[in-house]
Amino acid sequence: MTAWSYSSIKTFDQCPKKYFHLKVEKDVKDTGNEASIYGNDAHEAAEHYIKHGTPIPDKYAIMRPVVEKLAQFPGEKHTELKLGVLKTEQGFKPCDFFHPDVWYRGIVDLLIVDGWNAHMVDYKTGKNAKYADIKQLDLMAGAVFAHFPKVMRVKSGLAYVVSNEFLPKTHVRTEMNHYMGVFDRQLEQLEDAMQAGVFNPKSGPLCGWCPVTACEHHRPRRK
Prior knowledge:
By secondary structure, this protein is an alpha/beta fold. The chain contains 7 helices and 7 strands, in the order βααααββββαββαα. Helix content is 34%, strand content 25%. Strands 1, 2, 3, 4, 5, 6 and 7 form a 7-stranded mixed sheet that branches.
């Protein structure tokens, strides 16, 4: 089985050819853009505040109300928590992020465990929640249930810090298998592509941002 993450399966769904060059052949690197660099740095600022109380720089001041409120929640706090999951005949099992047989990998921006309850937050620095995908939370909640057997309920949310939007969802342990299967259709397509060695390009509105320039659908992005 091919190891995957939320971002990698979304890349495959967006364009199999892009996935091939970034994840299989690895002859192209996505160096990101100004927005993604800002997002990464903002996540790091939030992590340092939660872990060490390091003041959030003015550049990311828009995150302060959200992060400061979360820091007051009771419980054991985990930041940028890397979780690996194995898929076995006995069900989903926890494993190291870099386990040789890892099936799914995910990174939780912030997890707060308080007994059998947990709070899980994924920070978003996009302009708004127009294209939000709650399935990302489903996967992460499933991984949390695998790694924290005492947790029965996860209150999770996508926190859009720019537009001050919060998309919540409550997850329960009894639905763990469902959460881990939300991308089964795409995973079947990925396995078919891997076995056949065929990764057809797909045209879309993001082609102008794609780092795979040697593609029939690539076009320079308008400035």
